[in-house]
Design goal:
Number of helices: 14
Order of helices and strands: HHHHHHHHHHHHHH
Length: 306
């Protein structure tokens, strides 16, 4: 199989897996609070990343880095997984999955906005219109179509959903300057992250009582939201002749996710969700050139050897 064909295969697998995690998070939050879910899922992801690093023979290098590298991971781990997933999981706890997922999916637009002051990117009329279209979609979802009344179904949940997109965009932008191996770097971030999460769990929640049924969702989130899927996506980017060829497939995730939400969570998909999501993704596609350029800066600077 040619490398580009393999890239498409890995990308499709990643898209299909990511399309299921919104449902897994929503179902898991019916049995676990957001801190319990975060602790369990990050623990699973950490184990997966450790296994991959050992298999790649990179474990010794991970613990031979200069102090500055560990300080970076301590800061990045505070952002992701700690802060990002606390905000995201709480948003899913407050909102229907069909609303939380599209709001979080505005992160590419947030990257465009944040790249102006941080990366000194210039914004043109196309970027500006794309942002307006996507935020019209955000308002449509958050108000459940009541744009004139401007009445939000859950203001706090909507703010958290959008905040998660901002945090994720910031994390990726600042990740540009970090030239370390991607998998090793993510492992260290999660290693520091689990410390922060454990402290928060002890202070504000409790360790979840074991239940195979309830733990399954957390394991699934840890594997396919944070761990395995990231590795498969990295493989897709590495094999692809051009990042844009596989990055465009990411637009399928929220639409496929709605289908999964309908059949697994049992939410009746509202017309306002479909219209709002269409506007959000429409804005992303309209802003495609700028978004792909940013993705290439972030993800193609030094491809990980998988």
């Amino acid at each position: 199989m040619q490398d580009q064909h393999k890239a498409y295969l890995y990308a499709v697998i990643s898209v299909l897996l990511w399309a299921t995690v919104a449902s897994a998070m929503k179902i898991s939050l019916a049995y676990l609070d957001f801190l319990q879910l975060l602790f369990l899922s990050v623990s699973v992801s950490l184990v997966v990343l450790f296994i991959v690093i050992v298999a790649q023979g990179k474990l010794k290098n991970v613990f031979k880095l200069p102090l500055k590298a560990y300080l970076k991971s301590a800061v990045f781990g505070l952002i992701n997984p700690f802060l990002y997933y606390i905000v995201l999981f709480k948003a899913y706890d407050l909102l229907p999955a069909q609303e939380a997922q599209p709001l979080n999916y505005t992160w590419p637009i947030m990257m465009t906005l944040l790249s102006i002051p941080i990366l000194k990117q210039k914004i043109n009329i196309q970027n500006f219109l794309a942002i307006l279209i996507s935020f019209l979609g955000v308002l449509t979802i958050s108000t459940r179509g009541n744009l004139l009344g401007f009445s939000f179904s859950n203001p706090y949940g909507a703010i958290l959903g959008i905040a998660s997109a901002v945090i994720w965009a910031l994390f990726w932008i600042y990740n540009i300057k970090d030239k370390r191996d991607e998998i090793s770097k993510l492992f260290l971030n999660f290693l520091f992250g689990i410390v922060y999460i454990s402290i928060a769990l002890a202070a504000f929640s409790s360790f979840p009582t074991f239940s195979a049924k309830h733990y399954m969702g957390a394991v699934y989130v840890g594997l396919f939201e944070m761990g395995v899927t990231f590795i498969i996506w990295s493989m897709a980017l590495k094999k692809s002749t051009h990042t844009a060829k596989v990055s465009r497939l990411i637009y399928l995730v929220p639409f496929l996710s709605l289908i999964v939400i309908y059949f697994t969570v049992g939410e009746s998909i509202q017309s306002s969700t479909l219209i709002g999501l269409g506007l959000i993704v429409g804005g992303l596609i309209f802003d495609n050139i700028n978004f792909i350029r940013l993705m290439e800066k972030v993800l193609k600077r030094k491809k990980t050897k998988i």
